[in-house]
Each structure stands twice: as C-alpha cells, then as structure tokens.
Design a protein that fits this description.
Blueprint: H1 9-19, H2 23-33, H3 35-39, H4 41-45, E1 51-53, E2 56-60, H5 64-72, H6 74-82, E3 92-96
Parallel strand pairs: 2-3
Antiparallel strand pairs: 1-2
Amino acid sequence: MKKVYEESLGDVLRRAIEEADMADTLDEYRAAALWPRIVGEEIAARTGKPYVLDGVMTISVKAAPLRHELMMSRSQLIKCINAPFQRTVVKEIRFIG
C-alpha cells in the first residue's frame, strides 16, 4: 500500500521558495510593495513605483522639493520599511529624478 503525505499548499510553497533560495528576492518585492503604506497614498502617487535590488530601493521622484524632503527622511523610511521583516531587507534608498 502506498503512503500518502498531506501538506498544505503554503508549506509546499515555503519549502520551494527556500530550496530555490528566493526568500531574499521575495522580501525585496514585499518591501517595495510597502511604499504606499509607509509614505501615504498622496506621496506614493507623486513618486514612481519603487524597486529593490541587492538591498537598494530606487524610487523616481520628479519634484525636486519632494525628493529633497524624502532624502532628509531616508533613515527613518528605511527603519519603517524593514520593521515588518525584523531584519534588514533595504539597506539604502536612492531617489532619482
């Protein structure tokens, strides 16, 4: 008789992500998705869609005054983005024009 092991879909996906060594990449996508919640919908609407690569989040900001203000708040933004992960996912934020 054949043994059948039951696993939840979530467990199978978690194991597949770990075996493919994709956990860090997935966390980078999640960190980018947090941007609107961190800065609010109004500011998020005035910035480009962020992306994270190798721990560096890059965000396009056309308005120079807003870019400057965000640059001044960079360390606090990094803390807020990393808080849900309880580890460092984003090491740096770059604002580009």
